[in-house]
Amino acid sequence: TRYAALKTIVFIDTDEGITGLGEVWAPADRLIRGIKQYIVGQDPFNVNAIERTINNFGNVLTVIGHLPMPLLNMTGGISMALWDIMGKATNQPIYKLIGGKYRSRVECRYWMCDKPPEDQAGEAIKAVEAGFKALKIKIGVNPEHDVACVKAVREAVGDHIEIGFDCNGGYTAGEAIWTIKKMEKYDPSHIEEPVNSANIRAMARVRARVYVPLLCCGPGCITKEGIQELVFQGAADGVNLDLCRNGGFLETLRCAAVAEAGGLKASCHSSPGELGIAQLP
Are 37 and 164 found together in one domain? Predict the structure, then answer.
């Protein structure tokens, strides 16, 4: 479990002296240099055309679902920088440029790494005392450890706090079913990535056998085509989107629209160490 995240920071300068900042999940300097020709000289307000030109890089002309994660990730960072430029140029927050404010307050989950059950329970109590109503807790070590963590946290915080657990794709479908069934009596709000969501059939198999909602936050929801497949196969109850990994503001909004049309809940992913440029939809 990480306590920090490795990022590439993107700087885009304009002729008017405005600098936009973005961030990319992994080292991306070579990729960015490779597509620089498609950005220099463009109007940053034409962000949709710029994003699609980048995403079509390498003769992928139509189906964004065929793009590898590193390219979408890079597009996400460039998108952030372009929207940062637009926000600075207009002196407006980005939410006013993409449709306006939907809610005045966005609830966040407290994030906790994997650790012994008693330590997770102690930290959970402190989080609740600090005002958090929902927790995201890392597990995925082994069934005995993970069930003990769920039990300890629930007993520590009581029945009215939302506790969700992230397995990081650590189980096979059979292991996930067996383990989640043991967790059900402790009423977790959701289990994230019980199996590697690149295997959507495995996600669907787990979901068909357990009563705890499943959240996809991995390869299965990187593209709108992947989310569509989650819907078709009944493989998840929600998706956790990421403005880097989903390819920028506009593509993330498209992914959220597909999820909404398919009856899935959508939330937004963050990470430790980020600039915080674009974490909330």
Answer: no
Q: Per-residue b/e over 82-98, b at no fewer than 16 CB within 10 Å?
A: bbbbbbeeeeeebeeee
Q: Is residue 182 domain-shared with residue 145, that is, in the same domain?
A: yes
Q: How far is CA 106 from CA 43, 84, 234, 242, in A?
A: 32, 21, 27, 16
Query: In this structure, are 42 and 167 located in the same domain?
Result: no
**pLDDT computed for residue 246 by the predictor:** 86
Residue 167 has pLDDT above 80, yes or no: yes
Average pLDDT, the chain: 88
- Chain centroid to Cα 59, Å, comes to 27
SS3 for 12? strand
Say how many C-beta atoms besides its own lie within 10 A of residue 177's C-beta: 18
Q: Which residues pair with 170 in a beta bridge?
A: 195
- Continuous segment of H or E residues that includes residue 44: none
